[in-house]
Amino acid sequence: MKAARHAMILELIEKHDIETQEELGAYLKEHNYSVTQATVSRDIKELRLIKALTDSGKYKYATVDKTEAGLKDRFSRIFAQSVISVTSAGNIIVIKTISGSANAAGEAIDFMKWNDIAGTLAGDNTIFVAVKDVKVIPELIKKFHAMMKI
């Protein structure tokens, strides 16, 4: 029963902009699920739903995956608009950005969670990307260039 209810919740939040627990509970009741506010609250927590901003400026329940996909696009745009050049030195990739943009571009890199990257360090206009294995540097540089839309 719980798995079916969770599946229904995911379907409902995909189809409707549901803003409150009460609204979600009402939709569930329309679909013959008898729930209390406590059950809805627990389901939201178990499904790890978050409130995401819609295009209309309101908030709605969404899955982390959906929100992360939107963030990935936003971070990619920030990276593309900020980066001037990408080069390497040893096991470090050096990325130059327009002044004041390195932190945002560095956050975009961190968000990608690429396994080959040990970590990043951003200043005002430079990002150092520590790479775990020097052999993957050409591949990573290609990925960065793709993000820059070169």
In short:
With 150 residues, the protein is an alpha+beta fold. The protein has six helices and six strands. Strand 3 and strand 4 form a beta hairpin.
Which CATH-level-2 architecture of the largest domain? 2-Layer Sandwich
Report the mean per-residue pLDDT as an integer: 91
- From the N-terminal CA to the C-terminal CA, the straight-line distance is 51 Å
- Label the structural class: alpha+beta
SSE order, as H and E? HHHEEHEEHEEH
Overall spatial form: elongated
* CATH topology descriptor of the largest domain: Gyrase A, domain 2
Characterize the structure shown:
A 4-stranded antiparallel sheet has the order 3-4-6-5. A two-stranded antiparallel ribbon has the order 1-2. A hairpin with a 5-residue loop joins strand 1 and strand 2. The chain contains 6 helices and 6 strands. The termini are far apart. Helix 2 crosses helix 3 (37-46) and helix 4 (64-82) packs across helix 5 (102-112). The longest helix is centred in the middle third of the chain and has 19 residues, at 64-82. The protein is elongated. The chain has helices at residues 2-15, 21-30, 37-46, 64-82, 102-112, 137-148, and strands spanning 50-53, 59-62, 83-89, 92-97, 117-122, 126-131. It has 2 domains: 2-62, Arc Repressor Mutant, subunit A; 68-148, 2-Layer Sandwich (Gyrase A, domain 2). Helix content is 51%, strand content 22%. It has 150 residues and is an alpha+beta fold.
